[in-house]
Amino acid sequence: MKKIITSSISAVLFLLILLIVILLTIGIETNKFNEFISKKVSQAKNIDLDLDTIKFKIDLKELSLFLEAKNPKITYREVYIPAKNIKVYINFVSLIKSDVKLKKLNLNLKELDITQLNKLSSIIKPSNFKSILNNKIKKGKLISEIEIFLKEDGTIKDFIAKGTIKNLEAELFSNIHFRKINLGFFADQNDILIKNIFGYLDDIEISDGDIKLNLENGAKISSNFNSKIDLDEKIILKYSELFKKFELFKNLKSLKADLSNNISLNLDSTYKIKDYSYNILGTIEKGKFELLKPFENDYIREELKTVYLSELKIKTTVIPKNISLNGEGKYSFNNLDFSKIDFKNQFNKDYLRSKINLNYRNSFTLDLINYKKPKTSIATLYLDLEKNRDNINIYELSFKEGKNAININGLKLKKNQLLSFKKIGVETTNNEFTVQKQKIITIRGNKFDATNLVKFLNKQVDENKLQQINSILKLTLKK
User: Fold this and answer.
1) pLDDT at 460
2) What is the rounded CA–CA span in Å between residue 314 and residue 19?
């Protein structure tokens, strides 16, 4: 008797283990639940489901029973959705109570091409995204999996979609296209995460990119990506309409750079931009800027037309009505002799704050003190200025070349007229003096080269840049 009981228990355990193994692997084929599942799924509005043979299985990760059917026929709002298989997860407690309830649906879709994506666009919201799908996307393959979570009454509670897109081609703006784009994505009702973006924006190579979208109360979009840029004048002309508001872009003739980009957009409920920021960090390997007007004046006698950049590390932030641009690297006016440059700029339409520190090779002449920089020497120049419309405030200007030095502090200009200054110090081969302005202007020192003073004063008769200066002058010079 004991042996019989032991054998019976062993047999039951064996059959139970065998049943579990079968449920974990091949499953048990049945068609008893077909009609029931189709009716339950149809409770989720606008979904029709037609199943052939299904299999009963166990999902060990979820510790849940589910029914699996291959090649189901699914329509949503009368649009056919091609699927590889569907898994229907069942509430185990409800199964025991003979009141079967569905927990969720897992839908594994077949690979879709762009034609099928266009057909599905009618079920997509908001309409902006629908318009992008119909009019902007030209080519691509979509592989995806969708989990649909159900309420007690069988209606949709939430969903999660994930998958990959291969060889995407889309038109961003007129004549500007995404091509050979590959990416992965994850989405639910409120958030979309696009990751591992690789491909091209026309001639710009994009790598290691991601985009995060939050669709609650409008849309919040943030993106990070790396870009390799190699643009010539012909390619830049193609982008000119897109960047026509940026004066700096009009001067650009060529650019080769490796950059890290960060973009943030905040859109309202109508998907108009409320706020944005764009950050760029990286290196300009080489660049060419052509000045709109050749630069030449009384101090720099040779005509400067073009600025060349090399190995320039940059950090840029663009926000509404304000741009900051910082850089450290090399520059040249002839694309042969490169000098160091370090700058920090913050500017908008009417305002500029700039700090520049550079080595200077070209000519520089200051007739008032009869100084002319030798062509063979390299000078250092530091400039800290603020410009607000027609007002210019030079906090500090320092020019050093060998034993020659000129320092200016607190100089203010308006419409090319000198308004005031705090202190000017000059030390050259022929000059050694300081000028200070408080209640009176005081000039004191050892020597002042007045060789060109008469020529300078005669010029002021026609163009008096000092007419705003009205003060007592105290002069103490040994020579």
Assistant:
1) 58
2) 65
